[in-house]
Structures are given as structure tokens and as C-alpha cells.
Amino acid sequence: MKFEDAYEEYKIYARNRHKKQGFYTLTKDFKNHILPYFKGRIVSSLTTADIINWQTEILNKHFSYNFDRNLYYTFSAFIEFCVNYSYLEFNIVLKVGNFKRTISTREYKYYNSRQFRIFYRYLDDYVLKQYFYFIFHFGTRPGEAMALKFSDVYGGYLYIHNNIQRRGNRELDTPKNQSSVRYINLSFLMRWKLFCLKCYYEKKYGRVYDYFLFGGMKPLAPTTIDRKKKIACEKAGLFEITQHQFRHSYATNKIHKGVPIDVVSKDLGHSTVSMTVDVYLHTEKRQPSCLFTGFDFFNTLTKGFKKITKSIITFFM
Q1: Class assignment of domain 113-285?
Q2: pLDDT tens digits, 169-226
Q3: How far is CA 169 from each of CA 128, 166, 221, 222, 306, rounded to the nearest angstrom?
């Protein structure tokens, strides 16, 4: 059987075993980075040398390690499907093994509180201001925030239990993992902002049973968000960060303030604490020396005063 014919069969198999967004990502990555290399080949003729050569080609494109790793798992799952249907004797991708992690320094952009306040000031859209305020201060994924409705508000808590497809029909989908289903304790200010948002929607659209928290009748469009975000960054003279990096900002600022990593992990909806450590602990290690706590500042000021006093005494003696 030809490689592309086996792939068409695999898509039917995988469609019912993945979330819609996951299936979209799988097919996109396969079509762009796996299928072109093996198209026209007979599946049973594939060798480990073919897989090694494919890996070399992917490495030459200098994707991130995480992207390479996900490609490996996608390819391995397809080959395992071929083994189960007797198109191959064994999983040759699994035999070759995953991409090796390379030592590299990856810069993560984020805003501190002062930078966010400047950015917030230059946003000219009322709903977007509340959207970015929410992600920056509560650390949800953008898709989770876009999926929220007023029916998800329970007193002082917000129930995170949906995600929204970034592309296509923008339908509500299940969260990324089981740990993503969680309650968020809302601050008084955030509850007031949500109340004002609801009044804004009712005045604009009339009384409806339920609204999206950020968008009203329908969720915000990612392209609109990115376009207005870029304009605000340019006006403010700030470097631009992605929507997801506002979530990074929440986690990074919490860790810098000394919040325990397991608490941050739970707030983010990560499946394991190690995932939080892998993604965010680097920011603690590379925290700029100019970021002082109140005690650090007082201690530094005291030491400086002692040095100046000692110098004056020495000069006159």
C-alpha cells in the first residue's frame, strides 16, 4: 500500500480518537512535514534509514525541540497504525527513537506589572481590556478565556471546563487535559469588571440568557485580538508578546513573588508540576538582578550608607 493511501485510512481512524483541535493539528503537521517526504513510497518498503534521513531533514529546519518531539509522536502513532493493520512488521519510527534534545537558550517574553499597566492603558477596546486583564491576572489559556460564559460564574468563582477551537467554526471543545477543569477564585475587582461587562452587553444587545464573557453574542476573534494588541504595543512603545505569553506573564510574576510552584501549576491547569517547572523555572534562574524585594532594597541601601559613612570618616582622620 502507498504511504498516502495508508494516511487516508489513518485519518478516518484518528478522527474519532482525537479532539477536533488536536485532529486539525495532527493532519496539518503530517501534511506539511511528513507526507511530502514519503509520498509515493510503499509503506512496507520503508526502512530505519528512511526515518533517520527524515529526522535529519526536520532538524535542518531548526524547529523547536517540542515541535520536533510532537512530530515524532505523530509519525510513530501512524506507523503503529500501519503495524496493527499488517502494512509493516514493526514500528520503525519507535526503533530509531525520538529526536535528541539540544542544549539551547530560549528566550521567553513576558510583561511585568508595570509593562502590563502601560499596555492596558493603550488598548482602545473595552472588551479587550477586560480579556487581557483576566489572562494576565488569572493565567488561563486564551482558548479557555474565550470559551467562558456568564453561566460559568458561581458566586466568587469561575468554572473553567471548556476550550474553544482557534480555527474553523470556533466551536466549544473539551479542555486540554483533565487538570484543566478547575475553579478560579475571582478577586473583588474582577467580579466588578464582569458585572460591568454584563451590563455593557445587555445595553448593547438586550437581555439574553447567556453571553460569552469576552465577546458577548459570540467569542472574540483571534485575528481581531492580535491586530488590536499589536496597535496597543506600538502606541505604548512596548515589545509585542503573544496572547499565550500573557499566561506566561502570570506564571512568571507569581514565581518571582515566591508563590510555591505547585500552587502556580494548579492555577495554570497543568497535568503535572514538572511541566510547570520545565516551562517556567528558567525565568527564576535568569531573573534580572534589578528586581529587588523590599527587604533586598532596604539591605542594599543600608550597606551603601555604611560604606559612604566609613569613607567620610576615613577622609577626615
Answers
A1: mainly alpha
A2: 677 877 777 888 999 999 999 999 999 999 999 999 998 889 999 999 998 888 999 9
A3: 21, 9, 11, 12, 66
Q: Regarding the domain delimited by 3-96, which CATH topology (the fold level of the hierarchy) does it fall under?
A: DNA polymerase; domain 1 (1.10.150)
Concatenated DSSP letters for 5-27? HHHHHHHHHHHTTS-HHHHHHHH
Q: Which helix (H) or strand (E) holds 160?
A: strand 157-160
Task: Locate CATH 1.10.443.10 in the chain.
Answer: 113-285
**Segment 94-117, tens digit of pLDDT:** 999 999 876 555 567 899 999 999
Which grid coordinates are listed for 90? 514493526
Q: 228-237 burial string, b = 16+ CB within 10 Å, else e?
A: bbeebbeebe
| CATH 1.10.150.130 residue window(s) in the chain | 3-96
Cα distance between residue 246 and residue 140, in whole Å? 9
